[in-house]
Amino acid sequence: MGMGNLILLSQITGYVFGVIFSLFIFPPIAASQSKFNGHCILFSYGIKNTTTDTYIIDNWSDGSQCGFAIFVGVWLMGISLWQAIRLSIHAVNGTDSSFLMTCITGLFTMLMSVMLLASAITVTDGYNMWCHRIKEQTGEICEFAGYAVNFFADKSIDPKGFNIDWGVAKFGLWCGWIVYTILVCFSLAKLFKLHKQENILRSLSRERQRLLGHYEQPDI
């Protein structure tokens, strides 16, 4: 198997993993928001009501952090699925992307990698702040808050398993970032290979013209 085919198959595999990891991102985040009546718990915090021994969330975040993470997850699925199908067609037909298409793919892959990293950092920090505040106010950890009866003052909240939701989301974001960072390396390797091939073809063309007597050495 040639280097080109190996890179192509590696890219297809990476994009398939991208589709899989996208399912670890936006569904659990959307589920968590549903449990908290549409609110985003990232960077949200509250205080403990000592009278009722419950936790009151009195400062919800604006929700942009969750919205961005969901957006990144959806885009991860869309781009990964499209690329996996497109490159699979090339693999079946024994062809490969052009130099221009490879450049465009590389730029989109870099952008997706940056977005995944930004979202992963935001989600991790936001969730850690949420858990730190709960422990600071109540002395309990997030796992307890996710399953304890009557932990939250707002009885309309159904927090069961929210810690699992966010654990899965963080896993998906960080794994997605790792996959796309590797895909960036594959894109750069393919660009180098195509550039090298183009230079070889130009050299062969010059040699052919020289042998036919049609090539003139440019003045320098």
Task: Tell me what the structure shows.
It is a single chain. By secondary structure, this protein is mainly α. It is built from six helices and two strands. It has a two-stranded antiparallel ribbon with strand order 1-2. Strand 1 and strand 2 form a beta hairpin. It is elongated and about 75 Å long. 28% of the residues are buried. The model has no long low-confidence stretch (mean pLDDT 86).
Provide a concise account of the structure shown.
By secondary structure, this protein is mainly α.
**Quick one: biggest sheet?**
2 strands, antiparallel
Report the span from N to C terminus: 42 Å
Biggest sheet: strand arrangement: 1-2
Sketch the topology as an H/E string, one letter per element.
HHEEHHHH
Number of strands: 2
Rounded to the nearest angstrom, the radius of gyration is 25 Å
- As a percent range, the share of strand residues is 5-15%
**Helix share, percent:** over 70%
Overall mean pLDDT score? 86
**Count, helices:** 6
The assigned structural class equals mainly alpha
Low-confidence stretches: none
SSE topology:
Layout (H helix, E strand, L loop, with lengths): L2 H20 L3 H10 L9 E5 L4 E6 L4 H30 L5 H40 L3 H4 L16 H50 L9
Antiparallel strand pairs: 1-2
Helix pairs in contact: 1-3, 1-6, 2-3, 2-6, 3-4, 4-6
